Amino acid sequence: MLILQHLGRYFLLMIQVFKTPEKKSIYLKQILYEIDKLGLGSIGIVAFLSVFVGAVLTIQMAFNIDSPLVPLYTIGYATRKSIILEFSPTIMSLILAGKVGSQIAGEIGTMRVTEQIDALEIMGINPATYLIFPKVIAAVVFFPFLIMMSMILAMIGGWLSGLASGLIGTYEYVYGLQAFYQFYDITYALIKTVVFAFIITSVSGYFGFYTKGGALEVGESSTRAVVVSSVSIIIFNLILTNLLLA
Amino acid sequence: MIEAKNVSKSFGEHLVLDNVSVKFEKGKTNLIIGQSGSGKTVLMKCLIGLYEVDHGKIYFDGRNFSKMSMEEMKHIRQELGMLFQGGALFDSMTVEQNVIFPLSMFTNQSMEEKRERANFCLSRVNIINANNLYPSEISGGMKKRVAIARAISLNPRYLFCDEPNSGLDPITANLIDNLISEITHEYNMTTVINTHDMNSVIEIGDNIAFINKGKLWWEGNSSTIMTTDNKELNDFVFATELTRKLRK
Q1: What ipTM did this prediction achieve?
Q2: Which residue of B has its CA nearest to A110?
Q3: CA distance linking residue A173 with residue A163, whole number of Å
Q4: Confidence (pTM)
């Protein structure tokens, strides 16, 4: 029952969020501001994690494929597949749900309890559109770039670790990365990324927007935003994989 | 003029406002007073449309606010300034950006014109050389004054203040009171102030409405409040030993 209540309120909020903005030029500036804050501000963590997870993936692949019948380039091929299909779009989105989701819910929740959202409403501004819409657009537009960057860096991380550990040479690894290449894998990853970006920003915006109380409740909203965004990402990952790959 | 007619509001089973009818006159500082929990904040939130009333009507210069569509309500709200208890300044914006914000949203003025207007409003509330500071870098009294500057930047017809001097020292509180009163008379606004500060009542109370147990209990002004024989009001106004001595 509670889930249905939340779902109903979430969809009603989304209707408010996608209403025509009061002044488009202001919203354009807001979108650029959010791209800087949510997108560019996440480059560091995404890059760091991608390089290291890519490195670990390659080493694990190398240790698991120990049959002399399996060609060495399979390590590069399997690393690429894992990175493009799952690691970058899904795992990175989960990381972003933690970072960006808590940031959004905390920011909007604080604005709610300090009456800043009421102030917007009193001015005749639709607070849902003003606060959530630019964040959703910024994430939907910029997260695909972040995820593509993550894919590249993870593959570089894999190459470096393969070389450093002596498990695979540059030629085999690069050959593996290029082997049986399917462009659809990228399309699939980016479709997932866009859906996850929407989930992270809209769900976090929802929990922030309906925060009640004080500092304690803002913290609770942030936690709930991260948990619900993460669970939704996992569920939608299965649905999208079934729809797009099965 | 703002008029509330037979306004009732309840939250679940709890009736907070019970058939309240009150008028707030133009060019005057209209005070809503009452104990904490008496319903005065709910009344103010009903007046500005943050709460929907269960029964009754609210008129802004004859326009029925409670029956308006969202779009019409938006237009009225652009004629309305609000000073929140904590100031409600936008944390991510500087003092100047806070004052410019409503101008950017609702006018087509150039940046130069908006800056000029913001500086005028800030100087009107005696804020000088603080344009580039963030709300976290200024004092509580300054926050309230910046919030007043933001509220008057669009030349509103109606000004609402929710406990404007709560948490301030007596000198700053008096300054804020006088500032609101001056601005009200200067721009001929309909100002509604929600307070339980007795200094404000005596200093700037052109019209006073006393809310008790969700009902309009008494109406008058800063002179008549001192001589009334209304028991509940006297209990509220002369609640401390000092005020009782002063009355004698």
Answers
A1: 0.85
A2: B91
A3: 9
A4: 0.88
